Every structure is written in structure tokens, then in C-alpha cells.
Amino acid sequence: MRDVAAMKVPVRTILHVDMDAFYAAVEQLDNPVWRGKPVIVGAPPDRRGVVATCSYEARRYGVHSAMPSRAAGKLCPSGIFVPPRMERYEEVSAIIMGIFLEFTPLVEPLSLDEAFLDVSGAPAQWGGGISIAKELKRRICERTGGLTASVGVARNKFLAKVASDLNKPDGLTVVPDDVNGVIAFLAPLPVKRLWGVGKVSEERLSQAGIRTIGQLQVLPHAVLEEYFGVAGAKHIQELCSGVDDRPVETAIEEKSFSGEHTFDQDCADMEKVRQVLLEQVERVGERLRAAGRTGSTVHIKVRFGDFRTITRQTAIKPPTDSDKTLRDAAFTLLSRENICQPVRLIGFGVSGLAHSGNGEPVGEQLLLGDLLPSGLDMRQAALDRAVDRLRQTFGRHALKRGQWRSPSE
Amino acid sequence: MKIVIGKDAVLSGLQMVHGVVNVRPTLPVLSNVLLQAEADKLWMTTTDLEVSVRCLVDAKVGKAGGTTLPARRLLGIVRELPVENIDIDVDDKNNAVISCGSAYFKILGLPQDDFPAIAGYQGGSTFTLEQRVLKDMLQKTFYAASTDETRFILNGTLLSFKGNKLTVVATDGRRLALAEQELEFPKESEVDAIIPTKAVNEILRMLKDEGTVKVHVTKNQAGFEVENMVLTTKLIEGTYPNFRQVIPAQCEHRIAVERESLLTALRRVALLTSEKSSSVRLTFGKSKLKISASSPDVGEAHESVAIKYNGKEMTVAFNPEYIMEPLKNLANDEIYVEMTDELSPGVIKSDVPFIYVLMPMRIS
Questions:
Q1: Residue B180 confidence (pLDDT)
Q2: Within chain A, what is the greatest distance between any pair of CA atoms?
């Protein structure tokens, strides 16, 4: 029998590392003349689209990410608009993720420029979380040629993430390790820092005069339940006192696969909308198969010229990774909608993911000949995989459907 | 409407008809049982618009009339009443007072005019056969039907009246069960009918071991009539796949095995299958069949059963549920397993005209 006391969870040291204005910083790195100037990565100001990231110089004009580029252009007429170069960002990201792995194998990347690190098990001679954070920032700067990161050091993911955001850019924020210290650290922060407090809850709390986490900390549990429900209140109460047990997960399993396309100009041609939808279906199908997963729910998303957005979903039984099944479901959903308005965006996604079990020791149930409809599925699956292999070898456009067809073909 | 009815009569009637009632029907009145009293008889009718069941029971009718009452609620009440005569008195607002001894219930019904009309059948073919025979054929096959709604054509059991035979078939694409029986009828009556699984369940509930059943088949409906009951169902529309083509003409090896001992051994060994490894391996050796299962994360089990076999040794993997289901639904002491190799279909036969074709599982 193991000693119960010895099984107590040890105190952890978690780092949240967030690169400062990453895409814009990479652009300034590669184009020295842009340094010190407002660089805006995203769509050009005369076109439809949004800002992906902007440099701190641009932020002074009030530009921020996710803002429409047209609005950014008005706020900051001198801004240097640059289209994103994802391959280059991925390349730099790989260098940074490599540095993380020099400190710990427990790295949970959240995106190209952001990750959680669990350094609890780091050797004592490295001197604990703060020393590691300093050394990590130094190595990033050295090996990327000058990029900076902001780091939060805390006992869990929630606190580390809050901390990294407090002193940007080039920050290093340490959350106290004792309970009272944690409570005092959180108290002055606005309620929206808590996961689970979105715009709506923030607004409702604000109407009651509650703006800081400190005010939430002293609310009785019953009052929290009124705002957040029974389950939500427990979650919020834990976060308010800085409790968060979630581990750093090195391999995150996707919960869904999706893709969407925004038309350059609103599209009234439904044949074209269906074509683009089919392209999204094929891309998602390819990713599903590459990940060895199947999906049991299919959804489509349609945004109209006036920004009205609808999503429609349907269940698929049994779960599938077949392009044909996914396409039939997507087209059925689309045709039910009777769309007579120009479409701005069309999206497709699959969720309810399970492992398709390929290559696992699971036996494969054979089917009774080609006569029965299930026999067709096997041929369809073989076709999908053959197409995937061709596209991997010769590129995405090597093979295209001659004609997009309706599910009633 | 005012009747006096024995508890046993009303209870047995409700038990026959309540299975059709959906828990959450599309129309409120579909939760109800239609009661129609006339001349010492009470008709009870339920429907889900696909399947309808009518049952006739004896009653003392004080005042003829009709109403509809919540079927499950009524069944619950009747089940708990003492074994005595039950008075049911319904006013013209469809409030029903049910009394029995000193027990009193008042339940609220809906007008009988709200209840959908049950379509009668016109034209088509009519067949008469022993209830026992049809029940046995359905029992041996219906479990193999598909529950996958995207294969709606397989979501039922095929009754094929052809060539002076009734052939009953169900399949889900992995296994297929078939029972056959000689039956005389004129050539022009030949017809195929795919009966939805829900209706098959109700038919099995309705059929007894004695008496005959009349089967009517029209273009889109089938009716099953026994002494005091009628079931009508919509048919699954479409053409059933050509099932004859998946039945192997002949297999290399024929193995006789005792049904019960094979079934119990499979039950035990199947306990050690898991989601990751859902197959059992059957190794046919000289006079001995070894059944084994192993899951990397659970453990392993094996057991042997005596067989009559002299051929070469071979191992085939199957989903255990798929072998156990026919074994559970057969009554024979001895059955025959026919095998060719580990990737070809296995066949289970009994001495009556029954064939079960099962595809193996490919294991690496």
C-alpha cells in the first residue's frame, strides 16, 4: 500500500510564455526599416478582412487584433500593412518551441506564439521558476535575433496566463506562492480576466457594481450561483482564489476540425458557394483521416452580406471520415436553408471525434460483399485515401473533382 | 361511454397495444389509447402513425361510446388495481372515472375524433399461416436487422412470398439471418414486404403458439390479423438487396457442435473482450474448438468445446455478439458451422431451413 500522505499533489511551477506582437515582431525583425514603426499584419486597409497582429507602435493609435483593416487604416493612416507569412512565423515558432523543450518536456503549445511549460521537475541548480524564465527570455532573444516574450510564473496555468499579460511587452511577472499572496494578486484585476466571464457576465456584474476579482472574492457562494449557475459558481469561486488543477497537456486532442472561407465579394451564385463548401469538406476530411479520427456531427456556417450568421448541424451515424458522407450531409444542410441572399462566408466543421481505430489492434469487421450498401463504403474509403496520398505527393491542386455534384446524384 | 370490465381482460389488452405508443409523440393524442365500446366488446387502438395495433376484449357495455385515454397512465393504474371488475365511466368531456372497490381515479382524456383514422387495406395479397411458424421465423432472424438509420432499407425484416415459399431475411451488412418455409399461394400473390423492426417487435408480442395469422400485403402497408388483434404497419419502401448473392454456395469444412455448450463458452470468453479488442478467436482443431479472447489492457480467457471435425486446423475471429445471437434464438441441440478460411464468411445452419451468414473480423 502506498502512503496516502506521500500521494499529495506537489506544488507546481508553471510558466506561461507569450511572444510580444509575434507576427508584427517577426516582420520588423526581417525588415529592419520597419522597426519602431506601426506595422499591421493582416488584410490591406482597402480590402475586406481583419488585423491579425500589430506592433506596439500601431497599438498606440488604438489598433488591435481582430479589428477590421478598414477601421485600422482610418485610425493609423501611416500604418505599414503587411500580409501574413505563415510559413515564416511557423519557422520562428519552431525555434522558440525548441527552446522550451530545453527546459522541460511538458510543453503545451496554445498557438504559434504562446505555450504553457510545467517546470516543476527542473533540476534545483537551475534556480526555480524565476531563473528559468529569465534564461528562457534570454535564449529566445539571442536565437531569434531580438524577439521578446512576456512570461508569467505561477503555481498553475490560470495564474501564469493572467500574469504574463500584466507587463507586456518583455515582461516577467511572478505570482506569490502563498494563498494570501495569490488572493491579493488577483483582487485588483478586472473580472473579465477569469475564464468563464465573457461580455455578458461582465456586463451583468458591472450593473451590480462588481468590476474587480476582489469584489467577487467576498461574494457569498449563493450570490455567485445567481450569476453563474451551480456549476459555474464553483468554477468561478475556485478561479477567484487562484485554484486551477488542470495539468499541462503535451498532446492536445482536437475536439473538432473545421474550415471556412470568406469570399472577396459577397457571392450570390449558389453553385459557387457549394463549390467552396465542397473544398472545405475535402480539406476537413483530409485532416480527419490524417489524424486517424472520425466525426459524428457535421456543421455548416453561413454568413450573409449583412453579417447575419447561421450555423446548422446534423448527426452522422456511424461516425465517418468519408468525404462523400461528409459532403452529402453538408449539402443537405445547405439546401435546407433556401438561401436567397448573397453569402459572405461559408464554413464547414466536424465534431464528436473518435479514433477511427486504423492500425490499432482492433479487429476490422469484414462486410458481406459489395452488394450491400456498406460494401460501397469500403471502396469510398479507399478512394479518399488514394486522393489524400496523391495530394500529399503532388500538391493540393493535383487532383480536383471534374464537377461538383448534388447529393442526389 | 360506460363499461364494466375484468381486470385481466383490460390489462392483457393494454399490454398488447401499449408498445406502439411513443414516449414523446408528435401529437398529444398519440400518447393515448382509443377505447371504443359497443355490444359487449371493447376495442383498444394505439398508433404512432407508422404502426397501429387494435385489440378486442370482452366488456359489459352499459353505454356505448368512445374516448381516448393516456395509455401508459391507464396501464399503470389497471396494473395496480385488485383483481376485480373495473368500472370505467367517461363523460362527454372525456373525463374518465375509473373505480374498483374503494379505489377511485379520474383521468383526463381527449375526444376520439382527434385520434387518427387507421387506414384499412385494399387489394394486395393475403396469406394464411400458423402463428407458431411465423413467430419462429421472425424470432430467428429479426435481430440481424440494421439499426443504422442511414441504411433505412435494412432497418427491418424482409418477408418474401415467392415460389411457394416464405423467406424471412434480416441483415445489417455484417451478418445475415434467413429462415425459409414452404407455403402454398397462387403465383399472382407473390410479393416482397420489408417490415420495420418496431412492427416486428409488436408482431412477436402478438403471435401465440396456436391458431393462424392472416398476413395482408399491399403496395405500402402490411396487416397481421389474429383472433382478437390486428396490427397494420407501413412498409419500408425500396428494393431489398439481393441477399442470395452473399450466401456461400458451399464451404470447405462442416463442423457439428452442441449449441448450448458453444453458447455458454462464448458468453464466458467474451467477458475478456474490450472496446479495443472486440473479437473472439475460434480455433477449429481435431474434435476440439478452442475459443479465446485477449485484450492488451484487460487480460485473456480461453475455453474448449467438443466438436465433430477432422479437417485441418484453422483460426477465425468473430464479433462474439454476432455468433451468440443466432445461438440464443435457435432451439436445436446440435448446429452446424461451415467455414472456408479466416477471411471468408462463416455459416451457421440448423436442421430446419435456417441460414446465418457471418463475416469474420480481420485481426492483424
A1: 95
A2: 71
Does B173 sit within 8 Å of A366, measured CB to CB? no
More confident residue, A317 or A234: A234
**Same domain for A189 and A236?**
yes
Average pLDDT, chain A: 85
Set A27, A114, A279, A286: catalytic member: A114
Contact A368 B357 (CB under 8 A): yes
Does the structure show a pLDDT above 90 at A409? no
pLDDT in tens, A264-319: 889 999 989 999 999 999 989 988 888 888 888 999 999 988 888 889 988 886 77
Instruction: Give domain status of residue A14, yes or no.
Output: no
Q: Max alpha carbon distance in chain B (Å)?
A: 77
Model pLDDT for residues B143-166, shown as the tens digit of each residue: 999 987 667 889 999 999 999 999
Q: Which CATH number do you get for residue A333? A: 3.30.1490.100
Domain shared by A272 and A390, yes or no: yes
Whether A366 sits inside 8 A of B317 (CB atoms) is no
The CATH label, of 2.60.40.10, 3.40.640.10, 3.40.50.720, 3.10.150.10, for the domain at B247-358 is: 3.10.150.10
Q: What is the pTM of this model?
A: 0.58
Nearest CB among A361, A362, A372 relative to B173 is that of A372
Distance from CA of B148 to the nearest CA of A (A): 7
Q: Is A254 tagged catalytic?
A: no
